[in-house]
Amino acid sequence: MASYLTRFAIPASAVPVLAALPAEQKPIAVQVPGSEAYKVQHELKKAEIIPTVINEFLPSFVLDAKWSSDNYADLGNTLKVDAAQDEPSIKIHPISGSSALADDVTYTITITDPDAPSRDDPKWSEICHFIATGVSVSTNISDSSSESVTLSGLKEIMPYKAPGPPPKTGKHRYVFLVFAPANGTSDSLNLTKPADRKHWGTGKEGNGVRDWALDNGLEPVAANFIYAQNEEQ
Ligand SMILES: *[C@@H]1O[C@H](CO)[C@@H](O)[C@H](O)[C@H]1NC(C)=O
Ligand SMILES: *[C@@H]1O[C@H](CO)[C@@H](O)[C@H](O)[C@H]1NC(C)=O
Ligand SMILES: *[C@@H]1O[C@H](CO)[C@@H](O)[C@H](O)[C@H]1NC(C)=O
């Protein structure tokens, strides 16, 4: 079976950091500095989501998360807590320069808050806000301008919990990540449900989505984030 990384390979010459990938892989996506994938990575680093929440990675997909036409995630915009009460609609589409489409793979969506109760004192971090999986992907061939991808058949592992930052705790980062199985399996996934939202059930301060994804054989392929804070500061 072709591994996930094989299908999404980037030539070692373009991205030295990925030079460890086997040489026989067929390149289908070339990400050059300045491209959209690097822009997303840059924003994740600027907000210290890389490396606090997730290890460095280059996204293969754009992640759109939208609560309403005016309220959506845009790599670090600030939303009112009231605007994010309902479960957002989440879509992914291949990032420009990438043809990373794998419609036989199950994708997993997560939302995590690494700033609980505050970014200065994250002793409850991370808080798990959402896990959903069992996602199938279909290409929208009628839209040639941008191949959009529809996630369907979402199965919730941890139901959506809306942002609820306590008063006087400043801005919290709410981080959206989409994962794919690291070994490229097209089998249905048997993911674990964290025993608790706090510390993603690990009981260890600072533990969260990175540890859960590693335990479940998942690797990140897309990210987005918003900030939200209590009105009372
Ligand atoms: C596919 O793309 C077209 C054109 O953008 C859009 O009108 C349609 O709603 C899309 N279909 C799905 C299932 O997303
Ligand atoms: C998950 O469990 C099912 C049923 O036991 C099995 O068929 C499938 O291969 C498992 N998936 C993985 C990725 O191990
Ligand atoms: C892929 O990874 C899953 C989860 O770690 C594991 O259960 C499964 O056996 C692996 N499948 C293959 C073909 O390596």
From TrEMBL:
Entry GO MF terms: peptidase inhibitor activity; phospholipid binding
Any GO BP annotation: regulation of proteolysis
Source organism phylogeny: Eukaryota, Fungi, Dikarya, Ascomycota, Pezizomycotina
Protein name per its UniProtKB record: Uu.00g011440.m01.CDS01
Matching PANTHER family: CARBOXYPEPTIDASE Y INHIBITOR, PHOSPHATIDYLETHANOLAMINE-BINDING PROTEIN
